[in-house]
Amino acid sequence: MIICINGKFHKKDKFEISVFDRGLNYGDGIFETIPTFKEKIIFLKEHINRLFEGCNKLYFKLPWDKKAMLNLVNLTFEKNVKFEYGRIRIIVTRGTNKDGASTEDVLQSPPELIIVITENKLPSRVVAEKGLKLMTTKELRPYPEIKTINFIPSVLGQILAKKKGYDDVLFVKENGDVLEGGRFNVFIVKNNILKTASHDVLNGVTAAKTIKMAQKMGFITKKQKVQLDELISADEVFATGTTKRIIPIIKVDNNTIANGKVGPITKQLMIKFSQLFY
């Protein structure tokens, strides 16, 4: 495995990161997970665009422009083993400043860039069609529109969900607004119309591709508020994400969605997505 650190390439056991790195100390960083399929990188430009948007919101001063970042990702991909299904992880932290705790020069810190490629173990067909069981939580991700490396709500949420027999967590506001899953966007289907939350969620790349694909297939799509009772009474519910593609959600808390099986529209989308992309 070859890893890119700040534009230089290292074997996986031949690189160092400062113990004072702000990402390590404070979760002060951002990341992207980009799918690969055999010799091809999927949705690379979309993920790079979102990475730069997030870095701007966090006031990271990147020494690389988008073209240079694309080149580094492609070079890292070329130097590594090609998996049938892989994933590229880009991590950017604010870097190290003085003792790591000082905020005096925090905006002047040179960022730390890491690019690493691993296998992406997608859910098997059996698991994908069996669907997900989600537990709701009101412990929400901070700055949800930015893919920060502070993923404690998602990590702890999944740990607690699995202890109770669920697969993952579903973030729901106090007022009942459904947001997203621990690592995925959520859609409901009602009367052949697809809906997904429009605010306080990550602008998912896979979600955006699914929306465009569904529209071309003749479905109406809407980005708007979705209430929990609306989700529970939906005809179908599904999740989208880099490591899941499209996967049905068949239970939320103690509520079974419809008949508890993958719905016909979700199944169409699952098949079409894998045919078009990966």
Automatic annotation (TrEMBL):
Q: Which residues form the signal peptide?
A: none
Task: Please verify whether the record's keywords include Protein biosynthesis.
Answer: no
Domain of life according to the entry: Bacteria
Q: Which cofactor does it need?
A: pyridoxal 5'-phosphate
Q: Name one Pfam family in it.
A: Aminotran_4
Gene Ontology terms: biological process: amino acid biosynthetic process; carboxylic acid biosynthetic process
The UniProt entry's coiled-coil ranges are none
Molecular function via GO: catalytic activity
Q: Extract the InterPro entries matched here.
A: Aminotrans_IV (IPR001544), Aminotransferase-like (IPR036038), BCAT-like_C (IPR043132), BCAT-like_N (IPR043131), Class-IV_PLP-Dep_Aminotrnsfr (IPR050571)
Q: What is this protein called?
A: Branched-chain-amino-acid aminotransferase
Question: What is the species listed in this Swiss-Prot or TrEMBL entry?
Answer: Candidatus Magasanikbacteria bacterium RIFCSPHIGHO2_02_FULL_41_13
Q: What is the lineage of its organism?
A: Bacteria, Candidatus Magasanikiibacteriota
